């Protein structure tokens, strides 16, 4: 069951995403585009004192890309930039199979593990990592 591509939690997040919409006063913005699937994700953050005080996204595309963005915004609230960089690495490395995705690194971020099944569908991995690439773009742009 854990390996199913479309777990309920993914469908729920795709249907009613968390933290979706523009973010007033954003300090960082980044965009991601996945041409293979046509997905877009834009991320906007407010970084204060080295912490992610708020993060929103907007975008369009398949359920995996939008659910991953929604789960990401949930996981990132309140993290330090260092924690967020570590989580991004764990998630993206886990997706491409470099490390086990259900590693302890993701455990505190619960629902993210719902995306673990995507690993078995190589064409969809870019859908799942798109929001995270947009996040990295946002944080490294300054
Ligand atoms: Zn997609």
Structure overview:
With 142 residues, this protein is an alpha+beta fold. It has one domain: Sufe protein. Chain: A (Alpha-Beta Complex), CATH 3.90.1010.10. The chain contains 4 helices and 3 strands, in the order H-E-E-E-H-H-H. The chain has helices at 8-15, 63-76, 81-95, 125-141; strands at 28-34, 39-48, 51-60. The chain is globular and about 40 Å long. The structure holds zinc ion (ZN). Residues 34, 37, 39, 61-62, 64-65, 127 line the site of zinc ion (ZN).
Going by CATH, the architecture would be Alpha-Beta Complex
Could you tell me which ligands this complex binds, including any ions or cofactors?
zinc ion
Number of helices: 4
Structural class: alpha+beta
What is CATH's topology name? Sufe protein. Chain: A
Instruction: Average the pLDDT over all residues and give the rounded result.
Output: 90
* Structural domains: how many: 1
Helix amount? 25-40%
- First CA to last CA: what distance? 41 Å
Beta-strand residue fraction:
15-25%
Q: Say how many strands there are.
A: 3
Question: Globular, elongated, flat, extended or rod-shaped: what is the shape?
Answer: globular
Q: Mind describing the biggest β-sheet?
A: 3 strands, antiparallel
H-E order = HEEEHHH
C-alpha Rg (nearest Å): 14 Å
Uncertain runs are none
CATH class: Alpha Beta
Strand order of the largest sheet: 1-2-3
